[in-house]
Amino acid sequence: FAQMEDSCSKSGYDCFEQIKESYLGNLRNGWLQADGTYHTALKQVIVMNEPELKMPHIRDPRSYTKSMITAIDGMLSAEDEMGVTGVRPNFTVTYSFAVCWKCKYTTPTWGKPAL
């Protein structure tokens, strides 16, 4: 996301194309079995780790939310392109314990944004 040559920051934090291409590589190189189903070891996939600290920063919750949503969209598009069948792994995003003062909170102690 943030370290690749054509990082999402260069596309206004729209990560669709970058992540779709990257995820296609994962699917082609071992994540899918010959029948188009996911490898049985894959139950969850972390889409992004601590996006509020990396995409671009906790002070811009709309941008890091956009990066997550467009990344997931790219991953789903990659699955469709590869003709994935069967049970698909859950996608998740892991947050830090950083406090986003510009976000509305559902639970203040956790600081999860509700945009």
Specify the helix fraction band: 25-40%
**Secondary-structure class:** alpha+beta
The biggest sheet, with number of strands, parallel, antiparallel or mixed sense and barrel status, is:
2 strands, parallel
Helix count from the secondary structure assignment = 3
Oligomer: single chain
Q: In angstroms, what separates the terminal alpha carbons?
A: 22 Å
Total strand segments: 2
Strand content: 5-15%
What does this structure look like?
It is a single chain. It is built from three helices and two strands, in the order αβααβ. With 115 residues, it is α+β, with helices and mostly antiparallel strands. Strands 1-2 form a two-stranded parallel sheet. The radius of gyration is 15 Å and the shape is elongated. The two termini are 22 Å apart.
Could you list some keywords that capture this structure?
two-stranded parallel ribbon; 2 strands; 37% helix; 10% strand; elongated; 3 helices; 115 residues; alpha+beta
What's a quick, concise take on this entry?
This protein is of the alpha+beta class and 115 residues long.
Mind sketching the topology for me?
Elements: H1 16-31, E1 44-49, H2 51-54, H3 61-82, E2 90-94
Parallel strand pairs: 1-2
Helix pairs in contact: 1-3
